[in-house]
DNA sequence: GCAAAAGTGTTACGCTTACACCCATGG
DNA sequence: CCATGGGTGTAAGCGTAACACTTTTGC
């Protein structure tokens, strides 16, 4: 960038804030840490960073995620931009909310602790700085909406999981019980699960078969799919 | 804002760019204008602006929309942030894409012309500056996805419209023909259309009854609705 | 042998889809 | 009177939803 053609225009600080969901011990949790800059230094905050001159917003959010959890290749999507003029008393600063789904079993717990970050169940969250509470509720709403239409639940479970685990996750996300026979039938009928020969015996004597998400098959289905149901009954929310 | 607590951090230019859709003469059109700043001054561009210190990104996009079309209260949603480091050779500048649906019959045509803005059918669009072409294709994809689940088509039609008009719009959006009996049945079964006593005779001798979108009823349905179908068949895209 | 979770099948209903003819009117 | 677009009904098929019992095994 040799020249600034827009000189005289207004510049602002641009940050990313990550709304990081995990599924652990049967509940949805959120990863937060203690803010390291004034104002509000030391208060609970989403994990974020200013966007650097040499990176995009998506690169910035992946960078901080890796820094704190050690994880690469995370499911992360832009939520929205928070740009209210007075949202940050520290300075005019807009923030891009990015929500992430991570596998709690794969992340680096010591790294997380060393940054003073902590997992909180969603219903025990402390108050967060700025508009971060709003970001969390927006992200939760988005998670619910998207989980209705896309198989994103898998991003929150271990690579190998059982059908009852999957059902429990969806029950937590949607705050609703499902019939286990219909749930199993439905999920298997999608043909995006690969059944393994192993069983998980951690939650029952009989043991439950483990499955893997088959993202190749999913991509195939997506490709040819697209039936465009106009409005499909109650999906008109 | 009395003090800058983040001094020493990097600031960037933040702009909004509006992807403005209209439905006219049976085709989807996009409103573009000639860029007024260097570099690329005079080339076709989405309509945008820098975000000012005293406004949010949403306020900025509504401001430029009003400035060019004279319209208030427009359906406008954030698409996503475009923040690739080299997206704008003029300077490091991130842009927030905002897509808008407007009623072509209600906008101020002279105002549009006086700004050098022009409606182009989507398949006759000139090349646009920067990453604006990408913004358009992203917005179109979003429009299609959203139109499957939410009744947003009404935002593109006159307040009063006929069922055949509505069908034509959906056929254009989805590039797909619908059976007129099923289409009518489906839309009426949603119970969000109010039938008027007037007829529109502009496209047939018999004339077609006019309808209005009933947003109150729609809100009611949304409120109690929410049946959460897990994945509803092909809706798993 | 029993407690606790995993796993399985069938039926009724409602929504979706396919399909063809009559109606109203202006010219 | 006829050409043009508007408007209507029905039957078959498919996916959804409701429902209860058997299996496995560690203790």
From TrEMBL, chains A, B:
<feature type="domain" description="Nudix hydrolase">
    <location>
        <begin position="11"/>
        <end position="143"/>
    </location>
</feature>
<dbReference type="Pfam" id="PF21906">
    <property type="entry name" value="WHD_NrtR"/>
</dbReference>
<dbReference type="InterPro" id="IPR054105">
    <property type="entry name" value="WHD_NrtR"/>
</dbReference>
<keyword id="KW-0472">Membrane</keyword>
<keyword id="KW-0812">Transmembrane</keyword>
<dbReference type="InterPro" id="IPR015797">
    <property type="entry name" value="NUDIX_hydrolase-like_dom_sf"/>
</dbReference>
<dbReference type="InterPro" id="IPR036390">
    <property type="entry name" value="WH_DNA-bd_sf"/>
</dbReference>
<keyword id="KW-1133">Transmembrane helix</keyword>
<dbReference type="InterPro" id="IPR036388">
    <property type="entry name" value="WH-like_DNA-bd_sf"/>
</dbReference>
<dbReference type="Pfam" id="PF00293">
    <property type="entry name" value="NUDIX"/>
</dbReference>
<feature type="transmembrane region" description="Helical">
    <location>
        <begin position="12"/>
        <end position="33"/>
    </location>
</feature>
<protein>
    <submittedName>
        <fullName>ADP-ribose pyrophosphatase YjhB, NUDIX family</fullName>
    </submittedName>
</protein>
<dbReference type="InterPro" id="IPR000086">
    <property type="entry name" value="NUDIX_hydrolase_dom"/>
</dbReference>
